[in-house]
């Protein structure tokens, strides 16, 4: 029970600080906003500002309990004082009695269940992995630190800053409780919208549609960010509509704050910013430039910190994407292209239409379902008949690219408030349709009903875990039942000193260990380590050829291998590059300067006499790629050899810089021969691991390489540290 109280304290302190800061920000707007909408918008705007404050505290490593408690106390005291000075706000027009009763019933029933799910130990796939892994690393460092081993640490982390504040006091479940607050705020704001703008039935319908949505429920009670983005995006629209009616520029500035917060919450929220600016400029008429400044500057203030952080730590302000524009050693172009391609298609290869149907009624391939109600979403197009409907659907449209770029159904969640309102507006007549649809949606979305139509492996809620939430059963026992690799994660903390880098052939819940788990698809380093394991098991003489380029002896200061062929889908790679004179290899010298375009960071791998390592272009082949040696002085050479893979999509030529200072062609044609067998490949791979600071591997027995590691442990140079739940940890000797 003590743990549950700590969770509630951490979440309550964070949410109280957000709401209080929002009250201070909205203090001068109390006369323009009504009571409930004032409270919800204060929470949303305060969350945006609080996120920025935690970011700033993190940059100076002041994310400490005392500092956070003092900050929250000061904000809450200030908000109480302002509230007493300003008095209460007016009420919005009341809901019809039918809708009021239905809404209260749905929010009470679902809210009760959601609360205990959020309070239970955090076991969501991404929450127990990168969302809270990053938060845990920041908490241990009392602030922000570079995490180059995980591409997800480069994503904007607006809600993770709030998670961080709650985590310091209540750990992982406190973070989930923070996200749950956004799940509560969103339907309230939808209801307020309907009451303010004359669509009470549509607003209440949308509130029930979103709040009872199966995927919104489980996402909103987990340490995710999708529901928070949905709430912030609708907050932008709400504030824009208030500004449009009253032309109070303070309201437009707040819309800009929330638009910037959409980007801070999730990259796909960035599309909200240009839409807000365009609409504001359009409605401002001749003073369009003023509207752009009023909305754009606050948005920029919320966006800029994440751009600067990535520029300084990842060498790419838009990391982990757009790496062709901003080359860096942490995320490669090829990885980005593969990642985008994989996220944009269904896992089973089915069409996007099949994927959309899965996202509606199955949730298997789409990692959750939004519910059969949204089969009726096309009727929202009927709302285009009104200007209000056109504005709503414009916001839905700019959020659609998030789903197009990622098949996961949760990328549809930010669209649901706008689609639901559009559906509500289109189906207002006859009056019985909307209440019946809302009631039916609520019934079939109850956690007890979901197994009747969702796929058994769909991500969904089940019966509320009351005992686990109140910690009447051990937290470790509950998590281990949901996350089979959890015991291994905890064992790592017990047996390994300090903070170690562990290569995860098999994944473990990263949020539940202090150690850095390297996963191959999360960083260039992780991908490179995976390649070492793969090449160590190959016979070099079967996968490599020696390509020899011979030419007349020539004195050159630089020599390079240039790719002259057309663009192709594959990568260019090589294991070794050597230069020769009179039949003897030119000894490599510390005076040499090695370079490559692209990917200069791995060029040394082509000059280390190790066939396990490779230099890769790390992007699709194109003309103009090269690998270069600057000798530092004139050297006479007559051949260049490359040990590289078979069937590469390249056409190469050797060039040199002679005394003239310009590049001249030396050779185009290569003679092929087999490379000599190389012994000790497995141990050489482990040496590369150690050279990069990785001294441990963890692997599940069902992995393809697991048997090889066990049977040939002596050849690999590893020893088993522990085995638990079919997970084995090896130490590199």
Amount of helix: 40-55%
In quaternary terms, these chains amount to single chain
The overall pLDDT, averaged over residues, is 95
Structural class comes to alpha+beta
- Radius of gyration using CA atoms only: 29 Å
Query: Separation of termini?
Result: 44 Å
How many β-strand stretches?
Answer: 15
Low-confidence stretches: none
User: How many domains is the backbone divided into?
Assistant: 3
Fraction of residues in β-strands? 5-15%
Shape: globular
Number of helical stretches of at least 4 residues: 25
How can the largest sheet be summarized? Answer: 8 strands, antiparallel
Quick structural overview:
This protein is 50% helix and 14% strand. It has 733 residues and is α+β, with helices and mostly antiparallel strands. The longest helix has 40 residues, at 158-197.
Explain what the structure shows.
The structure is a single chain. This protein is an alpha+beta fold and 733 residues long. The chain folds into 3 domains: 451 residues, no CATH class; 100 residues; 135 residues, Sandwich (Immunoglobulin-like), CATH 2.60.40. 50% of the residues lie in helices and 14% in strands. The strands form 3 sheets. Strands 3, 5, 6, 7, 9, 10, 11 and 12 form an 8-stranded antiparallel β-sheet that branches. Strands 2-1-13-15-14 form a 5-stranded mixed β-sheet, with helices on both faces. The protein has a two-stranded antiparallel ribbon with strand order 4-8. The longest helix has 40 residues. It starts with a helix and ends with a strand.
């Amino acid at each position: 029970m003590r743990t549950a109280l700590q969770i509630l304290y951490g979440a309550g302190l964070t949410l109280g600080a957000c709401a209080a800061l929002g009250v201070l920000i909205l203090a001068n707007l109390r006369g323009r906003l009504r009571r409930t909408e004032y409270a919800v918008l204060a929470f949303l705007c305060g969350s945006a500002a609080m996120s920025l404050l935690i970011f700033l505290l993190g940059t100076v490593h002041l994310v400490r309990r005392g500092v956070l408690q003092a900050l929250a106390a000061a904000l809450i005291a200030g908000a109480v004082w302002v509230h007493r000075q300003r008095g209460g706000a007016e009420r919005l027009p009341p809901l019809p009695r039918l809708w009021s009763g239905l809404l209260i019933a749905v929010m009470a029933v679902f809210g009760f269940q959601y609360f205990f799910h959020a309070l239970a130990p955090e076991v969501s796939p991404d929450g127990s992995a990168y969302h809270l892994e990053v938060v845990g690393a920041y908490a241990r460092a009392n602030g922000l630190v570079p995490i180059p081993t995980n591409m997800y640490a480069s994503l904007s982390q607006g809600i993770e800053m709030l998670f961080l504040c709650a985590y310091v006091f209540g750990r992982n479940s406190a973070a989930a409780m923070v996200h749950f607050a956004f799940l509560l705020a969103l339907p309230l704001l939808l209801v307020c919208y309907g009451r303010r703008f004359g669509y009470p039935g549509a607003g209440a319908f949308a509130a029930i549609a979103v709040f009872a949505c199966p995927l919104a429920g489980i996402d909103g009670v987990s340490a995710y960010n999708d529901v928070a983005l949905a709430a912030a995006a609708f907050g932008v629209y709400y504030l824009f509509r208030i500004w449009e009616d009253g032309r109070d520029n303070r309201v437009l500035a707040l819309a800009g704050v929330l638009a910037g917060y959409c980007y801070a919450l999730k990259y796909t929220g960035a599309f909200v910013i240009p839409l807000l600016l365009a609409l504001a400029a359009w409605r401002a008429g001749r003073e369009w430039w003023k509207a752009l400044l009023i909305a754009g500057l606050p948005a920029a203030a919320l966006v800029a910190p994440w751009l600067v952080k990535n520029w300084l730590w990842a060498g790419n302000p838009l990391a982990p994407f757009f790496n062709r524009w901003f080359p860096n050693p942490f995320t490669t172009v090829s990885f980005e292209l593969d990642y985008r391609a994989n996220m944009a298609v269904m896992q089973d290869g089915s069409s996007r239409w099949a994927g959309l149907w899965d996202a509606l009624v199955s949730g298997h391939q789409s990692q959750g379902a939004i519910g059969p109600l949204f089969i009726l979403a096309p009727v929202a197009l009927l709302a285009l008949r009104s200007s209000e409907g056109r504005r709503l659907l414009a916001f839905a449209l700019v959020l659609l690219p998030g789903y197009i770029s990622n098949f996961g159904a949760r990328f549809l969640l930010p669209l649901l408030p706008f689609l639901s309102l559009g559906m509500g507006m289109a189906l207002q007549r006859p009056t019985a349709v909307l209440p019946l649809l809302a009631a039916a949606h609520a019934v079939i979305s109850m956690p007890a009903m979901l197994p009747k139509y969702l796929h058994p492996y769909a991500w969904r809620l089940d019966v509320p875990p009351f005992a686990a939430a109140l910690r009447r059963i051990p937290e470790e026992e509950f998590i281990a039942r949901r996350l089979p690799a959890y015991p291994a994660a905890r064992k790592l903390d017990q047996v390994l000193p300090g903070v170690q880098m562990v290569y995860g052939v098999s994944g473990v819940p990263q949020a539940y260990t202090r150690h850095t788990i390297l996963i191959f698809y999360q960083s260039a380093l992780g991908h490179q380590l995976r390649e070492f394991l793969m090449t160590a098991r190959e016979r070099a003489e079967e996968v490599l050829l020696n390509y020899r380029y011979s030419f007349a002896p020539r004195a050159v200061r630089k020599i390079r291998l240039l790719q002259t062929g057309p663009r192709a889908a594959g990568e260019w790679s090589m294991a070794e590059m050597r230069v020769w004179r009179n039949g003897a290899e030119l000894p490599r010298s510390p005076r040499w300067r090695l370079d490559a375009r692209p990917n200069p960071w791995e060029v040394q791998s082509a000059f280390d006499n190790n066939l396990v390592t490779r230099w890769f272009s790390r992007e699709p082949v194109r003309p103009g790629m090269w690998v270069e040696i600057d000798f530092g002085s004139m050297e006479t050479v007559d051949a260049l050899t490359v040990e590289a893979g078979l069937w590469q999509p390249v056409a190469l030529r050797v060039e040199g810089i002679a005394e003239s200072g310009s590049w001249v062609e030396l050779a185009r044609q290569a003679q092929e021969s087999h490379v000599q067998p190389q012994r000790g490949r497995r141990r050489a791979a482990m040496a590369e691991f150690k050279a990069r600071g990785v001294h441990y591997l963890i692997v599940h027995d069902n992995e393809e390489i697991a048997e090889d590691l066990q049977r040939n442990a002596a050849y690999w140079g590893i020893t088993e540290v522990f085995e638990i739940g079919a997970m084995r940890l090896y130490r590199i000797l």
